[in-house]
Amino acid sequence: MRNNETALGFNDKWFLLLGIPLLGFLTPIMYFGVRFHREPRYNWLAFAFSVAITAVFWFGNRWIIIKMRRKFPQLSQAPKRIAITALLMFAFVFAISNFNGFTPPLWSDIQLPYPDLNVVGMVNTLIIAGIYEVIWYQAQLRLSIQGQEDLRNESLHAQIRALKTQVDPHFLFNNLNTLSSVVHSDPDKAEHFIQQLSKLYRHMLEVQDTTLVTVKEELGLLDAYVYLLKTRFGDNLRVSIDVPEAYHDRRIIPFALQIVVENAMKHNVVSAARPLNVKIEVMQDKIVVTNNLQRKMHAVPSTGKGLENINSRVRLLREQEVESVVTADHYIVLLPIFPAT
Fold first, then answer.
1. pLDDT beyond 70 at 213
2. Kind plus residue range of the DSSP H or E element containing 166
3. What per-residue confidence (pLDDT) applies to 288?
4. What is the pLDDT of residue 210?
5. Radius of gyration (Cα) for the chain, nearest Å?
């Protein structure tokens, strides 16, 4: 039964149980002119014969449809399948109509006051086959759409996983160097540093297959990241965060804030004389990251993958671009916030 359902595109149990009696009931009325109130009158014998011959036609043609669908399962084989199916159906109807032992064959001299069973069988067969074919094509269309959606989602996740690996690997080495510089001079600070570093990388592992995280989770990751940076740069780096709790359940690209802040650190001077100020706030349903612009005299080698990393993920999810604005004194990045799920 499950194999039949696959071939037909749906479970036709109720279609059979309701369709055969209904078509059997209507056939004498539609083709033979029988009525309940006049001659020729509708009687139980006419109904029983009509249902019986309808069941024979229906199950026989259904069997042919199933066999041909299994033999020619591909959509590209549809023209060939339909042609062969039609020939087999007409041959089957012809055989049943002329050799059933009740109605006269096509070549008989008997004149009937109603349409020949060959005509009735062919018309009903076209109706039945047409319904099965339409339902099957709808099922194939649904499967095709679902398959395309599954492939798109898998491709999206694969691209996001690839993009996540582009987070600057030098960050790990910089932090290991920082750790080595404080481990002897301040063991307590080193211990806290290790805890925050562990928290950061544990979070990276936890969300490596996640498309979006909550703003609250991302801010927690940013806290750990900023602590590591401030261990290296002290008060030379100033990060202020003003994101209302109303936005904490909304969602954002993982590591987006980290990448933007890292980008600011990489391309700007961070010193006691020229501290780097980074402000994170919400404007018009976007998280806005602003840093004062004080470019390094010697350009830092860059692959340009920082913001493009975020941009690529946003395009995959929303088909829009991450906005960035450069003024005389500031560099601004506007990160989209996604609805809470």
1. yes
2. none
3. 96
4. 73
5. 37
Query: CA-CA distance, 321 to 290, in Å (whole number)?
Result: 18
- Please give the Cα distance from 60 to 64 (Å, whole number): 6
φ, ψ dihedrals at 335, nearest 5°: -100, 130
Interior angle at CA 99, CA 46 and CA 127, nearest 5: 60
Helix, strand, coil fractions of the chain, as percent rounded to 5: 60, 10, 25
d(CA 14, CA 143) in angstroms, rounded, equals 22
175 vs 256, residue with greater confidence: 256
Task: Look up tokens 């946003």; give the residue.
Answer: 314
Name the average pLDDT for the chain: 81
User: What are the strands, taking DSSP E only, across the chain?
Assistant: 213-214, 237-242, 251-252, 276-283, 286-292, 323-326, 330-336
Q: What mean pLDDT comes out for the span 105-115?
A: 66
How many angstroms separate the Cα of 145 from the Cα of each of 4, 137, 156? 22, 12, 16
Quote the pTM value: 0.52
- Three-state DSSP class for residue 184: coil
What are the b/e assignments for 227-260, b being 16+ CB within 10 Å?
bbbebbbeebbbbeeebeeebeebbbbbbbbbbb
With cut-offs at 50, 70 and 90, classify the pLDDT of residue 164. low
> Nearest CA to 33 among 127, 99, 104, 112?
112
- Predicted confidence (pLDDT) at residue 104 exceeds the cutoff of 80: no
C-alpha to C-alpha distance for 267 and 310, rounded to whole angstroms: 17
Asked whether the CA dihedral 79, 83, 88, 89 is positive or negative, the reply is: positive
Distances (CA, A) of 189 to 136, 180, 183, 335: 68, 11, 8, 33
